[in-house]
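protien #1 (seq + structre)
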Amino acid sequence: MNVAIIGYGKMGREIEKILLERGHSIIHRIDINNSELLDDKGAFEGVDVAIEFTSPHTAYDNIKKCLMLGVPILSGSTGWVDRKMEIDELCREKNGAFFYASNYSLGVNVLFRLNRWLAKAMASFPQYDVKIEETHHIHKLDAPSGTAWTLATEMAEASNGKLTVAKEDIISYREGEVPGIHTITYDSEEDTISLSHSAKSRRGLALGAVLAAEWLVGKKGVFGMDDFLSI
């Protein structure tokens, strides 16, 4: 497939490696120095999909521009999703394709599933206090991470609102070059139950994004990792 990478930082470069390993062609590598390409429909002729990993400040506009150009787009940018409903509506209006996940790691998405199951089970045991902690590298701009907020949101939904962790109560750490650690803990006077995922590198995120982009090509609609993984 022919791909435009939007956001050519560390994550964009990791995605580039995997795309090339899997035999795909990279048509554009877009960053702040050539962002005007997102206003040029002709520049995207022949592009099968755009993969967008940028910042909370630019993601919404990047995604919107791709949908307006008729380019299927997959995004992993976090910190902007309070406006995701607008993007979903635009995608449907334009009969486009949009894929979003706060985390593309296959392991993290297994964690999401376990988190939902455990929250449903723990809703009957109010003696447990629940907390969410996340650790990322010092370059990550949003806190808490999109992954941590997804865990909190899905926990509340699975427990019918009996278990809640407010966004401001998620414990966030920024240390060195840590790719990402997420932990959910249930604690009582008698015992402690924990679910945790620790990424070893960005490669797992990049691989998941590339696999999801391959899956997205040729589809129409709004999608996420549950659609891709059929869970």
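ok now protien #2
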Amino acid sequence: MRIACLGLLVIFLCVSCREKHDHEGKTPLVEVGENFLYFEDLQGALPSGLSKEDSVLFSEQYIRHWIEETLLYDKAQDNISDNETLDRQVANYRKALVMHAYQQALIDQKLAKEISEDELQAYYQNNPELFKVERPLIKGLFIKVPLTAPRLAEVRHWYKQEEGEAVEKLEKYSLQHAVKYEYFYDRWMPLAEIIGMLPLQGSDADAYIEKHRQVELKDTAFYYFLHVSDYRAVGDVAPYDYARRQVKEMLFNVKQVQYLEQVKDDLYQRAEEKNRIKKYY
């Protein structure tokens, strides 16, 4: 349907083209001065999945937009006198694009290999000031159960244990009786996420959790049990397993800058050796 629709547009919109124009096998739709919009360009821009009616509407709008831009560009060229400045800006922009594309190709080729774990850990250990905690982090376990849940005395015992049989029993218990259960002894979580599950209000909530590693709270419907196995306050050095992604990004950026500086220095040295650089000062 898409091709058929565009075919109709070719029939209705295609203008007669002078033989002096080499269209390189493309089918002209519209000519404005020496500029041509081709059927193939419109076909490539047409989104897939459109109905026949929507395809016609899109095509009409696309053609109108192309004509308006072409006319505006021609008018601007006739009325902008300082073309040398524009040409210089365009040349500088193209130069920047070409250099960026080349540098990116070099980086992809040279630094595509995964940075080793040893390098990451060494960078983390040598730059602790770069990896500070910006919001409190905790490891631990959280469980929320109804006030009417059975075996609460056992829950009070289990939630304080960090491993072994107690954790296994609590996990099985949670499947039947818990409204919410979070096991995160093995990963760091923002304290704010956990506080959002607790009936704690106000700015003192962070300080309360920092001082109480075993928390039992209740409201009119539920008991809340939280065991904090580890805690990092704002300003502490972030744990490596939490900061690892940031470490990798920062180390990659450092390597990228160093590599590109080395590339430019090598080019400079080789050019000097081959007497390609002439200094007139």
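The two ends are 68 Å apart (CA to CA).
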